[in-house]
Amino acid sequence: MKYKNGQYHIENINAEKIVRKFGTPSYIYSYDKIKENINNFKKNFKSIKPIICFSVKSNANLQILKIIKSFGLGADVVSKGELMIALKAGIKPDKIVFSGVGKTTKELKFAIDRKIFLINAESESEILEIEKLAKSKNIKVKIGIRLNPDTDANTISKISTGKKENKFGVNLQTFIKILNKYKGSNYIKMSCLSVHIGSQITSHKPFQKMLSIVKKSIQKSNHSFEYIDLGGGMGIKYSHKDKKLNYKIYCKLIEKFLKSFNSRIIFEPGRSIIGNAGVIISRIIYIKQTPKIDFIIMDAAMNDLIRPALYGTNHSIIPLHKKKTRISKKYEFVGPICETTDKFMLTKSYQKLKQNDYLIICDVGAYGMVLSSNYNLRPKAVEILVKNSKLKIIKKRQSITDII
Does 338 participate in catalysis according to the annotation? Predict the structure, then answer.
């Protein structure tokens, strides 16, 4: 994804050709970028030989999951729907981890019947339900227990999951109590300690603290775990100011951690695999001039990409046709939805824009389409995969009649 002679290209295709054919707003993904991200992840963590389970909640497109599967990754799911689509993508049950705080009895039964790799339980109530189902089938189910390490990920508060006030996991006292109570069970096997402290983490320090707490917790529990599930949370760069997590440092920390334990590491990356492999191409509907600011009204809206409205985050917005000259102008890039929060970016310097120009919203591959909605009865965008010089629609554009 880069400019060639001032024209934005996705692999070998000029982005303007894509929008001329398929319209806007459109989600576009790069096969090569997904491949590059997966290979980079594997390379940096090669020494610890982790089991890599892609976080389906970050991007649940069936064709994307088929690509993920083709590179040997498993899946981390948080619902029956995600489990079903992972299986449909060809991901083997023995490579699927089921996480989440509120799995229903029907969801647990479905997962157990499919003989998935691991169910990460987050409360004693859930473990009781799993044990009851396993007993009814006279089988032994492999589970993990999610520990809440009370660790601040130093990320956006709304995507922090490892602090004691968050709903996820159990504290150390409860963790040890559960281990002691169920270690002799004929129907569940305590195979894994699971932990996940949040998303978009760009420093190794929260992970370092997490590993230290996990180490002490295992030592206090006096239990041997076959697997340690460290979750995901690895951050990406959303702007040139952002840092990117140093995988090599994180890997060294895990290597040191594993000297104390004979366990296999599980990762659940999502954003770090797919985040920067997707963009939205949008058209400027109007430019609304006011004395202090010009509003760039786009045809992409918060129903297409809710992250800025939901989390207060920023995504870089770049022009499809790049010009050398910039002007000092306060622009706010907004959508057409009737909400003040339907906005994407504010800038004081940009190239001169005009009505019907095309814009690229960057790094939307993760938590983009999966969080989209039909708010204001707006149809969902088309999803397109680019591979070298070929285009493939991987999800059709919704029509208003589809919704109504």
Answer: yes
Q: Is the pTM of this model over 0.85?
A: yes
Identify the CA nearest to 279 among candidates 20, 1, 56: 1
CA 182 to chain centre: 32
How many other CB atoms are there within 10 angstroms of residue 359's CB atom? Answer: 26
Which residue of the set 53, 251, 338, 362 is catalytic? 338
Tell me the pLDDT of the chain averaged across its residues: 93
At position 69, the amino acid (one-letter code) is: K
Closest C-alpha to 116, from 99, 137, 104:
99
Beta strands (DSSP E) in 150-274 are 188-194, 227-229, 264-267
What percent of the chain is predicted at pLDDT more than 70? 96
Q: What is the CATH number of the domain that holds 52?
A: 3.20.20.10
The answer to whether residues 101 and 207 belong to one domain is yes
Q: Are residues 162 and 175 in the same domain?
A: yes
| Reported confidence tier of residue 154, pLDDT bands at 50, 70, 90 | low
Structure tokens at 251: 């890997």
Are residues 148 and 124 in contact, defined by beta-carbon separation less than 8 angstroms? no
